[in-house]
């Protein structure tokens, strides 16, 4: 019987990551074991971290309030248009997901392209600027004052 196979499942060898939430009593108990100076430093660090987080949140909110979304209707050929939307990433939207949603909603092709200035914009086939404006204000929760519609005309070549 020396070759008996153990019936119990082997314990996993890798420790699993756990997210542990401590109650207030556990935190105060762990702090009470520290010296008085260390407790004061820990409290001061906690206050600093809270202040930094609050300041970063207000900065982000202000930047989001001031960020503009530009919807450009660009003429390709005589009666063909594409609609370019830029500035959505400042409002916390994932451009690829939004482009896919535009493609489904308007039944057209849409893609994320890089601009010459280094940013990214969504290009939607067809003249959908009014519908995109409505979507950005309603679903995207962008204030109307921060959305600007621009009509671009393709310059005719001298010839």
Could you explain the architecture of this structure?
The protein has 159 residues and is of the alpha+beta class. 39% of the residues lie in helices and 19% in strands. The chain has helices at residues 24-32, 36-66, 95-106, 129-138; strands at 69-75, 81-86, 110-114, 120-125, 147-152.
Between the first and last Cα atoms, what is the distance in angstroms?
Answer: 97 Å
Care to count the β-strands? 5
Radius of gyration over C-alpha positions, nearest whole angstrom: 28 Å
Write down the oligomeric state: single chain
Report the average pLDDT across residues. Answer: 80
Domain SUI1: 69-140
Subunit structure: Interacts with the 40S ribosomal subunit.
GO molecular function, one term: translation initiation factor activity
GO biological process, one term: translation reinitiation
Which features characterize this protein?
19% strand, 159 residues, alpha+beta
Question: How do the strands and helices of this protein lay out in sequence?
Answer:
Layout (H helix, E strand, L loop, with lengths): L23 H9 L3 H31 L2 E7 L5 E6 L8 H12 L3 E5 L5 E6 L3 H10 L8 E6 L7
Parallel strand pairs: 1-5
Antiparallel strand pairs: 1-2, 2-4, 3-4
